[in-house]
Design goal:
binds ligand V47, alpha/beta, TIM Barrel, 15 helices, 44% helix, three-stranded parallel β-sheet
Length: 375
């Protein structure tokens, strides 16, 4: 395509967005073309974002729990994992896990995001027990836990179906599924970065089943490694198709690849402009997903603030104990205070609104963070 053609095609896409028509794969490729001015793509994405959410930008008070980093898989993009006998390998005890629950409650968290490695020696009951112990001791915390990669592993361990596992985990306290493990669905790329773990079909099938059971979930895309625009659009289309069927995805989170300490450390981390373009294109293509998150841990604070005008309506949370990105070279702080996250949103010209995992608005005593209720 020559530059004038790109311009004409963008005018057509703009017309579609203004009149609420769905964009095609080819439209997505035009939006990813660097000759389509980023500012224009961002303006369109912002229009859609404001149509859906006005001036609101959501955040939550949350914490992460990675019960083990020992993992049978060796995904090439992962800096967090360890071998069974690796000195950096760990598996948390029940006491350590419960202490994290206590800390979360004491700091007013509404959500705990739980993911980790597939430990060679831990039975399914260990993973289930993490949920049941936490939910019994701290029932106010929503447990957003385990990706399809773990769910598939549990199926392998127990010989039970996806549905049986999800039902059982829900009984143990599972509140929703996070968006991880999606990476890039297209086998041309997936087979190079994580050939052994759940494939695209399996990832989508676990979310389909979760949605059928009434569980909500998030979805992600890991970009900035070996993929190109075609693979990104293919990925977004597969998510959009499932969402048409089930409506169960709440939030899409684009995840920029961080290369440090990974098998792909020769790759340069995506630039801020690429981050903003992926966010904006995702907002435009995923017309049936309500929220797009600018995960500040991964983007950096400055880009996350800008992202609130490029399609994102959510900035994730205050966050504690994040390891996956920090092990891969993220230089963002380990956490932000509630006051700071609100200031960052206000500086970006948006109205901060605290939400819980399921996007209920939260009312909180600013002088005592442990006093909160759903509005
Ligand atoms: O699945 C792993 C990615 C994901 C690296 O649901 C990496 O609200 C970049 O899914 N560089 C886990 N990315 C994180 C995740 C997530 C994050 C925030 C919010 C939510 C949500 C979900 O992180 C993995 C993988 O795609 N990842 N290693 C790396 N070196």
């Amino acid at each position: 395509m020559i530059a004038t053609e790109v311009k004409t095609r963008f005018a057509e896409i703009q017309e579609k967005v203004l009149t609420g028509q769905r964009l095609t794969k080819d439209d997505g490729l035009v939006l990813f073309d660097p000759r389509t001015p980023l500012a224009e793509v961002g303006r369109l994405a912002n229009l859609v974002r404001e149509r859906l959410h006005g001036n609101v930008a959501y955040y939550n008070i949350n914490t992460h729990l990675n019960p083990t980093n020992v993992c049978v898989y060796r995904c090439r993009f992962c800096a967090f994992r360890a071998d069974l006998r690796d000195p950096k390998g760990y598996a948390m005890s029940d006491e350590q896990i419960l202490a994290r629950g206590r800390e979360a409650v004491d700091n007013g968290c509404t959500e705990m995001h739980i993911v980790g490695g597939l430990h060679h020696k831990k039975p399914y009951e260990w993973y289930r027990g993490i949920l049941s112990q936490l939910s019994e001791a701290y029932p106010t915390i929503h447990l957003k836990a385990w990706t399809p990669v773990e769910i598939n592993w549990f199926e392998f361990l127990t010989k039970k179906s996806t549905r049986e596992i999800l039902e059982d985990l829900r009984e143990a306290g599972l509140g929703s599924l996070p968006g991880g493990g999606a990476e890039i669905f297209h086998p041309e790329i997936r087979d190079q970065i994580c050939e052994h773990k759940a494939n695209a079909h399996q990832w989508l099938e676990v979310h389909r089943t979760a949605h059928q059971l009434g569980l909500r979930s998030n979805c992600t895309m890991l970009y900035g490694h070996l993929e190109n625009a075609y693979h990104r659009i293919d990925h977004l289309m597969r998510l959009r198709d499932l969402q048409d069927e089930t409506g169960g995805f709440q939030t899409f989170i684009p995840l920029a690849f961080h290369p440090d300490n990974t098998k792909l450390d020769h790759i340069t981390k995506p630039s801020g402009l690429v981050d903003l373009r992926v966010l904006a294109v995702s907002r435009l293509m995923l017309d049936n997903v309500q929220h797009v998150k600018a995960y500040w841990i991964m983007l950096g604070i400055e880009t996350a603030q800008l992202a609130l005008s490029y399609g994102a309506d959510d900035i994730d949370g205050t966050v504690r104990h994040e390891l996956i990105y920090h092990d891969a070279g993220a230089t963002t702080p380990e956490m932000l205070s509630v006051q700071r996250i609100r200031e960052l949103i206000v500086e970006a010209g948006r109205d901060p609104v605290e939400r819980d995992t399921l996007y209920h608005r939260i009312e909180r005593d600013p002088h005592d963070l442990t006093k909160w209720s759903i509005k």
